[in-house]
Amino acid sequence: MTVSPRVPRQGEKIAPFPALLGGPASPVRSAGNGAADHDEAAEPRRPRAPRAEAVNAAEASRPDRPCVTELRLSAFGVHRGAGFPLGPLTLLCGPSGSGKSSALRAYEALARLGGGAELGEVFPDAADCVPERARPDAQRRRGFRIGCTADGPEGPVRLDVAVQAEPRLRIVGERLTAGGRTLLESALRDPARRAVQAAWHTAGSSLVTRAPLPDDRLGTALLPLRVAGRTDGQRQVLAAAEQMVVALRSVFVCDPLPRAMRADAQLGAGRLLRGCGNLAEVLWRTRSECGRRHGLLVDAVRAGCAGPVYDVLAEPGADGTGAGGTVRALLDRGDGLRTPLGRLGNGELRYLALALVLLTGPGVLEVDPAGEVPAALQTLTVLVDGFDRDLDARQREGLVRLAARMCERGHIRLVGAVSDASWAAGVGGVTVVDLAP
């Protein structure tokens, strides 16, 4: 399935910075001075109750595990008012400069913010994310806006974040919505303070609760620490925030670097790093942990590497000890010959590393999932820039078919960037988002 990102219609205006978070009227609104205030006149009319059949169908279609189903870049890099639908397996395609890498970067940034990271850690070069033609306002401010939708048991939940990159990096607006109701909204009220004024839905004796939140962290990720959960409204806020955070947090950014994978690896925690330079260490650990998954890996490697492959294994490295030292990975050719990974081509190494990623999980990959949520209720999302880099046609097709099989099971999702996705047209379950101008 090939889709195009949602872009502004002809004549549609994109709100300039700092007109940050526009949208329909809601119980919480931004006052003229930037504060979040309640406006009873802005309370939307209660919609007519849907028919029971429609409600049951909608509930049946909701995923059991929270997952991100749309990425929105209102003003980020080359993107203006774009929305990218994300399926279980999504390929972003387009020529160089079309914004594939920046879309993945925005997804990773939201994931890190959802995990509680500070804004400065996530955007050390925030000015580079501002659209090139964006002009500063009267206060010399420039910034960008990113957002996403997370679907799950609570239905679609939307998160939109406005970031000021200049003159000072800070979050100046945030909105969390679900079911047509604004559950959290924040706005910058006093530029001299390192805080934003926030208001969240309460539906108790007070319709909203107001309090300051830091301007360098995502407010949605802080809600479990600030909301008591005593009223139905508060519980709705907590459920929506939890769904968004769980959907965002379990992300593994992967870009296998063949030159790093050729060297022996130091034994350590046995968790695969984003560059896959410690692939040998991970194979040393996983080969004996799950024979079935290792067998699937061997089958995949056999289909993507030249020559016979009997096994994929690791052995003590040059120091000859293994314990506390180094290990190296090899392909067992089945006739007494073992080929070190250093002899493999770049495509073979990237293929092997990505196959291992697809066949493992958070316990093996260097990710920080929500520890308070059972693993069965979480989905790991893998982000791969240059998904088809260095791969030949056979490796490319074999890898995307393996990804489609693994993503169909629901425990893993993948968003990859490719220059051309015509080769994936015949593979079921692939969503292709064409970014070509």
Structural overview:
It is a single chain. This protein has 437 residues and is α+β, with helices and mostly antiparallel strands. The protein contains 10 helices and 20 strands. An 8-stranded antiparallel β-sheet has the order 5-4-7-8-9-10-11-12, covered by helices on one side. Strands 1-20-6-19-18-13 form a 6-stranded parallel β-sheet, sandwiched between helices. A hairpin with a 6-residue loop joins strand 11 and strand 12. Helix 2 crosses helix 5, helix 8 packs antiparallel against helix 9 and helix 9 runs parallel beside helix 10. The relative contact order is 0.15. About 11% of the residues have low confidence.
Name the features.
27% strand; alpha+beta; 437 residues; 10 helices; 8-stranded antiparallel beta sheet; 6-stranded parallel beta sheet
Write a brief caption for the model.
With 437 residues, the protein is of the alpha+beta class. It has helices spanning 52-61, 100-114, 119-122, 219-226, 232-249, 258-261, 279-286, 291-304, 346-359, 393-408, and strands at 2-3, 28-30, 36-38, 67-76, 79-85, 89-93, 142-151, 157-166, 170-178, 181-187, 195-201, 208-214, 251-254, 265-266, 311-316, 326-332, 338-340, 380-384, 412-418, 430-434.
List the helices and strands and how they pair.
Layout: E1 2-3, E2 28-30, E3 36-38, H1 52-61, E4 67-76, E5 79-85, E6 89-93, H2 100-114, H3 119-122, E7 142-151, E8 157-166, E9 170-178, E10 181-187, E11 195-201, E12 208-214, H4 219-226, H5 232-249, E13 251-254, H6 258-261, E14 265-266, H7 279-286, H8 291-304, E15 311-316, E16 326-332, E17 338-340, H9 346-359, E18 380-384, H10 393-408, E19 412-418, E20 430-434
Parallel strand pairs: 1-20, 6-19, 6-20, 13-18, 18-19
Antiparallel strand pairs: 2-3, 4-5, 4-7, 7-8, 8-9, 9-10, 10-11, 11-12, 14-16, 15-16, 16-17
Helix pairs in contact: 2-5, 4-5, 8-9, 9-10
